[in-house]
Backbone:
């Protein structure tokens, strides 16, 4: 993952593919739920869907595991979605340009789900006045993961402290944002809803750090493919060794007293090149051509 140190320009970032898709998806879901709540005929259904798609520790424990992702597409109000989507665009676009479409989405949803798992775990501890019945919504877990990644990979870049017209280095900006989230979690200990929202923020940042520190640079797909190829190669080595043992039994059954296993096979069960073997030949024998 490239570590940039250039100064961010004052121009707006591009709408990269994954960022654009996430912006559209969040916007469509927000408008859909606003429409459902605006009309009495659909208000009850909207509330029911909101509860079952938002993140609630008790519901996840009872099998509603889709909430680990769906909660990130729901938002409380216009300002909530506006600031989240602005941060997604401003910081996510640069990271997608660094990593590419697939790896960026892996990272984003890794942080979203990590933030959800932290939130669920904390909700069952009773710490900070939270409860397993507390509902959490919003993309902030994924956003805080993006902020942390941007602060680490582009720490020397200058970002504007919106709405204030002055610049600050990204690494200091991220440190300040995380410190505010920690302070918010501790200071709102009696208001469970706010505390658990801050825990989601911190959980997203934590899992963003875990990704950067421990996940292979090409993501889960690359790691899985490497593991699959390793298992496949181990299987083929086992088959070659098994075939070599069968060949050895065959040669012994046919009274080939001069047969030596090491003359024909290497330690991995691969058939040796005849030109390198130390095999006793009969008169008139010649070394056949080797075909790999």
Residues:
């Amino acid at each position: 993952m490239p570590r940039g140190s250039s100064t961010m320009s004052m121009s707006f970032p591009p709408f990269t593919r994954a960022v654009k898709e996430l912006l559209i998806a969040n916007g469509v879901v927000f408008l859909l739920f606003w429409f459902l709540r605006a009309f009495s005929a659909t208000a009850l259904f909207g509330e029911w869907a909101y509860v079952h798609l938002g993140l609630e520790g008790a519901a996840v424990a009872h099998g509603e595991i889709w909430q680990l992702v769906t909660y990130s597409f729901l938002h409380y109000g216009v300002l909530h979605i506006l600031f989240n989507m602005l941060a997604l665009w401003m910081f996510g676009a640069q990271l997608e340009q660094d990593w590419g479409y697939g790896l960026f989405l892996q990272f984003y949803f890794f942080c979203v789900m990590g933030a959800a798992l932290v939130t669920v775990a904390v909700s069952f501890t009773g710490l900070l006045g939270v409860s397993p019945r507390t509902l959490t919504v919003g993309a902030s877990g994924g956003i805080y993961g993006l902020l942390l990644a941007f602060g680490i990979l582009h720490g020397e870049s200058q970002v504007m402290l919106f709405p204030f017209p002055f610049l600050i280095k990204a690494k200091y900006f991220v440190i300040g944002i995380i410190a505010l989230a920690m302070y918010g979690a501790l200071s709102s200990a009696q208001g469970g809803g706010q505390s658990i929202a801050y825990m989601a923020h911190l959980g997203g940042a934590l899992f963003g750090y875990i990704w950067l520190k421990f996940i292979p640079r090409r993501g889960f797909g690359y790691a899985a493919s490497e593991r699959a190829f390793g298992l496949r190669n181990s299987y083929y080595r086992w088959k070659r060794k098994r075939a070599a043992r069968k060949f050895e039994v065959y040669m012994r059954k046919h009274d080939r007293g001069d047969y030596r296993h090491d003359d024909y096979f290497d330690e991995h069960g691969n058939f040796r090149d005849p030109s390198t073997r130390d095999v006793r030949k009969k008169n008139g024998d010649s070394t056949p051509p080797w075909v790999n």
The radius of gyration is 29 Å. The chain has eleven helices and four strands. The chain has two domains: 17-215, 223-276.
